[in-house]
Amino acid sequence: MGCTPATPAPTPTTGPVIAVEPLAIGLAATLAPGGQGPVGDSALSIGSGAVDTTGGFIPDGQMASPFDVKNPVVGFLDPMLLRAIQGASRAAATEGVDVMLTSGWRSNGFQRRLFDEAVTTYGSVDIASQFVASPDESMHVIGKAVDVGPVVADEWMIRNGPRFGLCQIYANEIWHFELVADAQGNCPPLRPDAAG
């Protein structure tokens, strides 16, 4: 769940923006299919920061090329990270591995939605934080993190990404990479999850 949104395909960006109310943590509510509203007696809504669901959304099963800079997921990445992931992608291609992005830059509102949905799913902020960073802590929001796919690309990146400065950050997310290797290509120790 960490970096892969479990939301339905977004409405077109030219459509209306739907305002939502602050998250009511601690209420046991179940959202209707597609997250369109509460089911049952409880009124639980997704956070007020989550006014857009498209700012960084890639539908499940789809990926973006790290060269598709017209897509905000790619084009809004930090320029150094963008160069690094493109260089890694070129090198992987010479070995028959297609490095794609399942996520990159995300808007603050979209990250808020992901985090609030994780709180709803896991029932607490502490547990949700293990899988999804809050907008204040997410490196995706500032364009300094990418999620790579498919799995063969994740494995290639774990082995080869440090040559490009790219490191896996969380032990529970083989797909999440940030530009944090030192000049010798050494990565910092893996954190157990997004909370630690």
TrEMBL record:
SUPFAM superfamilies: Hedgehog/DD-peptidase. Gene3D superfamilies: 3.30.1380.10. It comes from the Bacteria. GO terms for biological process: proteolysis. InterPro entries: VanY-like_core_dom (IPR003709), Zn_M74/Hedgehog-like (IPR009045). Residues 79-154 form the D-alanyl-D-alanine carboxypeptidase-like core domain. Coiled coil: none annotated. GO terms for molecular function: peptidase activity. This is Peptidase M15. It comes from Mycolicibacterium hodleri.
